[in-house]
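User: Predict the structure for this protein chain, please.
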Amino acid sequence: MHLKAEILGLQRTETYEIPIPAIREALVNAVLHRDYSNFGRDIKVGIYDDLLNIVSPSGLPNGLMESDLREGRSEIRNRVLARVFKELNYIEQWGSGISRIKKLCKEAGNPEPKIQERGDFVDWELYRSTISNTEPVTGSEKMSEKMSEKIVRFIQANPNITIDELSKLVEVSTRTIERNLKSLQAQNRIKRIGPAKGGYWEVME
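Assistant: Here is the predicted structure, written as structure tokens:
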């Protein structure tokens, strides 16, 4: 991500383009509500040109829909963890986390973040703002490269693989997959043969 630097009086202050408290809330949400019976899968955090993506393995708790989340309804999946987080003051009030994330991003001038259920995982997208006078923080490029390598390997194993299948395997949103596929095509690392439906991928390297 980037830092925004401002001079207030005699002091220089620096803030991230996505508010750190909003990222913390999203991470707490992912840890609390993931399905720990689903072994072999981890919470993933990816940083891209236009957003920060947090993916938690598990769908929404039974009876809960995306519309319920927007209204502040909450169902506790892991009660022991929830009690511990509450004692540590990582949770202020049940069901308030999502509205707090949206408020923090709005106050920072960022687009409203999106939370959605995709198959058997929950996907957070916190959008980056366009900031001048920015200072890069190392690490994001390596993370993006690692995801691209995964996508290339899956395509090599199955040239007919779909975007939805890649999304589930890599555990990120279909939008993120589409963005990485375009980047790989621009780098001439992969090539699409035939139409979107019925065609296949070819690895150029």
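The CA atoms of residues 36 and 139 lie 28 Å apart.
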